[in-house]
Amino acid sequence: MGPKGFQFAIDRGGTFTDVFASCPNGKVRVMKLLSVDPQNYDDAPREAIRRILQEETGNALDKDGKVNSSLIESIRMGTTVATNALLERKGAKMALVINKGFKDLLYIGNQARPNIFQLNIKRPDVLYTEVVEVDCRVIPGMDQCQIDKSKLKWKETYGTTGQKILVIQDVDEEAVRKDLKVLREKGINSIAVVLAHSYTYREHELKIGKIAEELGFNQVSLSHSVTSMVRMVPRGFTASADAYLTPHIKEYVKGFSNGFTDDLKNSNVLFMQSDGGLTPMNLFNGSRAILSGPAGGVVGYALTSYQKETGLPVIGFDMGGTSTDVSRYAGALEHVHEATTAGVTIQAPQLDINTVAAGGGSMLMFRSGLFVAGPESAGAQPGPACYRKGGPLTVTDANLLLGRLLPEYFPKIFGPNENEELDLNATVAAFTKLTDQINSFLKQSGGKSMTKEEVAMGFINVANEAMCRPIRALTTARGYDARTHALACFGGAGGQHACQVAERLGIRTVYVHKYAGILSAYGMALADVVQEAQEPCALVYCPNSFDELDMRLDTLAAVCKDKLKAQGFSESQIVLEPYLHLRYAGTDCALMVSPALGDSAHATKHGDFYTAFVNRYKNEFGFTLSDRDVLVDDVRIRGIGTSVPAEHTAPVSGKGTKPPLEKIVKVYFEGGYQDTAIYLLEKLRPEQEILGPAIIMDSLSTILIEPGSSAEITKLGDIRISVGASQSKSVTAELDSVQLSIFSHRFMSIAEQMGRVLQRTSISVNIKERLDFSCALFGPDGGLVSNAPHIPVHLGAMQETVQYQMKVRGDSLKPGDVLLANHPKAGGSHLPDLTVMTPVFHESSKRPIFFVASRGHHADIGGLTPGSMPPHSTSLAQEGAAFKSMLLVDGGLFNEELLVKELMKPGEVSGCSGTRNLSDNLSDLKAQVAANQRGIQLVTELIHQYGLDVVQAYMAHIQQNAELAVRDMLKEIAKSTIAKTGSAVLKATEYLDNGTAIVLKITLDKDKGSAICDFTGTGVEVWGNLNAPRAITLSALIYCLRCMVGHDVPLNQGCLNPVKVIIPVGSILDPSEDAAVVGGNVLTSQRIVDVVFKAFQVCAASQGCMNNLTLGETSWGYYETVAGGSGAGPGWHGTGGVHTHMTNTRITDVEIVENRYPIFVTRFSLRQGSGGRGQWNGGDGVTRELVFRRTVQLSVLTERRSFQPYGMNGGEPGERGLNLLERVDGRVINLGGKASVEAYPGDKYIMNSPGGGGYGSPSDLHDPNKQTNKQYSEFLERGSVYEYRSAQESV
Fold first, then answer.
1. What residue stretches are annotated with the Hydantoinase A/oxoprolinase domain (predicted)?
2. The dihedral formed by the CA atoms of 1083, 772, 924 and 882, expressed in degrees to the nearest 10
3. CA 291, CA 325: separation in Å to the nearest integer?
4. Beta strands 268-272 and 72-79: pairing type?
5. Alpha-carbon span 1218 to 1200, nearest angstrom
6. What are the backbone dihedrals phi and psi of residue 790, each rounded to the nearest 5 degrees, phi first?
């Protein structure tokens, strides 16, 4: 029995619109249309509905020529309209209304740059076109505040969380009305209102919202009602996205429904939200719509594979044209509550879908001996080479060349008139050309030549390995084993790769639903309607607050229930899920948890949230903090109106019968062409078996069964593949370009997974939440093979540390030893960065076969000041505990007694203390040992798979490959330098603010591609702490070389092989053993980069400083670094308010700072005009103002307060920085570049950071259109794996 009327489930994707329809007679229809085809229809989903109704009933249109909605029972739709508007910046014209002093807050964001090695910093554009600053402000009340309030008109009140709030300036309603009127006159109809602390104090936002509505704005997004979570920047982004996208969505929905009788008023129309739940058409809004399309696919595979076809948890693998979406399902949808899409951070529940840049359209390139697939994509226009529009070679072309795609089964929609079939000849021609290029390279390096099939197969292998990395990050990194999962494959391109991806991950079962080509649409048909309610909270989770928590959960539950009942759900169809957003006191890591079942002392009426939180914390992070309070940040209810999907009847079984064969074709696998059987899915019956190699064709996708694997058709007509071992090519120690790319991914993956273990098992905020650490793998000679993440100041520096230990310890190292070092003479950067190294042994050798190491920033290791970063230290002893080569673990025994003694030793120095946080030091060092163990385990697995000789050979091959890339670049630079100046010698000098010169002379060899970097003439060691250990200069050089190469190269010891570095002993760059170095790490490192780029004439100077600010009392400390301007270069403007070069630290959100510390921020905005003018202008610095609420010690450690950041080629220099202290009595004092002073309640610190230099003479103004001329689409990653890596690269 079918439904009463037609039920449509539609996924309107970027390229195709997919439709799944249930007809009243029980029939199922599926359809795929181009999403945009203006010649034939104006709206693809409506056209699909019209076609199906016409074909099934013969009268799709009513008397007015509109689609007859009386035939339709329901429409469920997912759409990429919001995502595309965000990617292409095509939303509504909108304005931002924000507190005075913060007009650039969302532009500056968290001040980190998206791509750490891009000198032309590309920040996503902001969404608003105008800003209105409102002179109103509230701050959290604080018992220990010492500001004299007697003369101030501050009002005390309470926020919705019960928090005390001080209103220090009320809204001037007339001024707001006047400013908003101006916006209306400019034609702006949409605004986002974002005020500090509105998550708890809403009154000001509500007042402004009311005025805006009276003035006729048709979209007013108040940040507290869009998302009431703490943190002003992400809440501001979310409100802006809402104001930017909601009008756009409403317009789309209106256009869609206009083509139906009565505008669909009487039909049940639901839209899919980012969280995998449906919502009525009129409630669908911008901030919840970002993942509307892909969410259907996750629901689709979750509900069709998990515990239906397999008891295993499932990894979703959705491979499309430009990208692949990866997710995981183990009985519950996995949500994240904050994620970034196209540069906009959205705070809203959304499925954890990880998008990686590897799809059918990923471009294939051969660079310096390395096979590269993606991240650039050919997009839909021009598309792959075989699409007949002059596109580049892509993964799709590789599949076509190898016979895995059959043109005769593809629709004829290609070519300029979109009426031709796939062009195999164009693909063959392009591969022949690329293969010639690869072979001429291999001939020079003595390698074996390759056929074009081997080349295509190589690219497929590299693309598959690239897709495995995020799956490993999603599983193993969180404590799950990838091998215990099934792979659910859907999307147009996934079927060609699923077997190989599964085999690489050790997965044995691949599941392909019969509607895999349109699974997102099918998922819409299965999904539930979801109604969420959430509000902030500030309670401790303990029996005293249970009544209040229960009451708040009940109130929210009633709201959700009423809304669902209004949509026609009965009591029995409604499920209410309670959640609390919990975290340990003193940490930032909050988890959204549902309660554990059962009765206990920790249980509220809604269940035991405490036990659920502790179990999940232990699973994700490896330990719990039993002595700390658990705080409730938010209370949330997810109300679900359950759908009853139609039961599908199983087709007749074909057990024991032979599947009907269409034909046999030749398909290329490792080792050569094989006869491969072709079957059509529609002709296959349940329980029939198919042995690989075979291809199952379906109108919607192509499924490849590899040799050694087999497929079975399930009872309901889906495909289950059992993955066997395919014939992989045996790998030898000889260099193979394809294996080189694969090993490069594997070695990087090992460093990444070590980092995940370190983060999960560490305890301090610095490592667990700020992610200030890196992990690395070293060859038998101590040379770096891979490290992750790429924190510039750690690049290459750990190698010096490992090689120092090898020199000092010689052959005395034994299995079970672990070493600890941080001393500048032992390759250290500054003392808080502790490096833990583990040598690895093998029965074949007495010496270590390789090393693993992890370096983490410890918040305190003793010394003059809390935080161990004293601005006024003059000797190393004042900066904390120093280790040159300590056996942290001796033959398996942890040397705790000696370690504690050494960590307390700085207390013997006058004015200093031992470590102020011993328990965190011990826990974090144990976590570093655990991370190293994980690295050893992973490399040992590689050795089992390939053999020790092969793994060590590829460690060396990868280093040689990096060397090759740098040599190629140095040859180019040498040639252009000689052409420009007639000489191969480059020179530059830069002065620190204290007058010390950093002198560099670079001698290039154009034939060998080598360079001598000679710092002779650099000033001597200085009094104070600006001395930089040798390792810092090497890190700065690797960073500069990688920026100049301009594309991904493995960053390892090979990068520095072509470079000979001469640093005079006793200079500021190689100071004596006892010299203070803490400023060298954070300031001098930036100035070394300045001098290198000046010598190479790459671009103008960036701010050349990290603007370090430390403040505190004996019981607490706060440290921040502040952004400035980046330098302009040939063809690009500098960027304002961003961190540059050797740092990329995120700044703590205004609301968090004001809640936790006795300070408040009165201004954080760009310093207009501080960037140098030029043909291309330098980026602006920022102004940041802090008011102190208690007496604090204020310390600043900054550069570029005397000498301006240089311009280049006639560009003007950037403004110098300026540090001011405005006393409460109005007196203003210039603090200079380095100072430590006492500041009193009501004093204001004003930091003006330097701007970047300009490039080219200001009179040669450029053509504004010249900056962007990129033909191919840049791919935007997203998901929790990407968030984690971005966070790692922002320390």
1. 235-532
2. -20
3. 11
4. parallel
5. 9
6. -90, 80
The CATH number of the domain holding residue 545 is: 3.30.1490
**Cα-Cα-Cα-Cα dihedral sign, residues 490, 495, 497, 501:** positive
Pairing of strands 130-134, 94-99: parallel
- Confirm whether 223 is domain-assigned: yes
Whether residues 210 and 102 fall in one domain: yes
Cα separation, 141 vs 167, in Å, equals 9
Give the angle subtended at the CA of 593 by the CAs of 82 and 616, to the nearest 5°: 115
Does 783 share its domain with 903? Answer: yes
| Token representation of residue 558 | 């009633």
DSSP conformation class of 65: S
As a residue count, the chain comes to 1291
Rounded to whole angstroms, the Cα distance separating 500 from 33 reads 30
* Count of CA atoms in the C-beta half-sphere (13 A) of 683: 12
Together in a domain, 877 and 771: yes
- Provide the domain limits for residue 157: 86-258
Q: Which of 595, 610, 641 is the last residue of a domain?
A: 641
Residues 608 and 753 grouped into a single domain: no
Query: By the 8 A CB rule, do 1045 and 1069 touch?
Result: no
Does residue 240 share a domain with residue 129?
yes
Do residues 1151 and 1189 touch, judged by C-beta distance below 8 A?
no
HSE at residue 107, side-chain half, CA atoms within 13 A, is 22
For residues 360 and 321, the answer to whether their CB atoms sit within 8 Å is yes
Q: What is the mean pLDDT of each run of 10 residues along the chain (1291 residues)?
A: 79 85 89 82 91 91 88 90 84 96 95 89 89 97 90 92 93 97 96 96 97 96 91 94 93 90 86 90 86 88 78 88 85 82 83 83 87 80 86 93 90 79 93 94 85 94 87 75 89 88 92 88 88 88 92 93 86 91 81 85 90 84 77 91 71 86 93 93 92 86 91 91 77 82 86 84 74 88 85 80 93 92 92 94 88 90 84 92 94 90 95 88 90 90 90 91 87 85 90 96 93 96 94 90 80 87 96 94 94 94 92 80 95 95 88 92 97 97 97 92 96 97 96 92 97 91 46 58 70 61
Indicate the DSSP class of residue 1074: T
Q: What is the strand order of the sheet 219-222 is part of?
A: 130-134, 94-99, 190-194, 219-222
| Region label for 1186, one of left (φ > 0), alpha (ψ between -120 and 50) or beta (otherwise) | beta
Domain assignment present for residue 535? The answer is yes
* Residue 725 domain flag: no
Phi-psi region of 1112 (alpha: psi -120 to 50; beta: other; left: phi over 0): left
Closest-CA residue to 1029 (of 1199, 822, 1201): 822
In whole angstroms, how far apart are CA 557 and each of 552, 1042, 1092, 1170? 9, 54, 61, 52
Residue 355 pairs in a beta bridge with: 325, 1278
Structure tokens given for 1272: 């191919």
Tokens representing residue 571 in the block: 């009591």
Region for residue 109 given its phi and psi (left: phi exceeds 0; alpha: psi -120 to 50; beta: otherwise): left
CB neighbours of 1003 closer than 8 A, spacing ≥ 6?
984, 985, 1011, 1012, 1014
Question: How many Cβ atoms sit within 10 Å of the Cβ of residue 869?
Answer: 27
DSSP one-letter code for 1289: T
Question: If you write DSSP's letter for every residue of 361-384 in order, what string do you get?
Answer: TEEEEEETTEEEEEEEE-TTTT-S
5, two tokens = 């009327």
Residue 1040 within a domain: no
Total of domains in the chain: 3
Based on the fold, state whether residues 636 and 750 are members of the same structural domain.
no
Cα–Cα distance list, 558 to 60, 349, 569, 601 (Å): 41, 20, 14, 26
Examine the fold and report which residue of 607, 623, 641 is the final residue of a domain before the chain moves on: 641
**Which CA distances in Å does 1226 have to 885, 1220, 1221?**
52, 12, 10
Q: Taking the alpha carbons of 367, 371, 374, 377 in that order, is the dihedral positive or negative?
A: positive
Are 1030 and 878 contacting, i.e. CB atoms less than 8 angstroms apart?
A: no
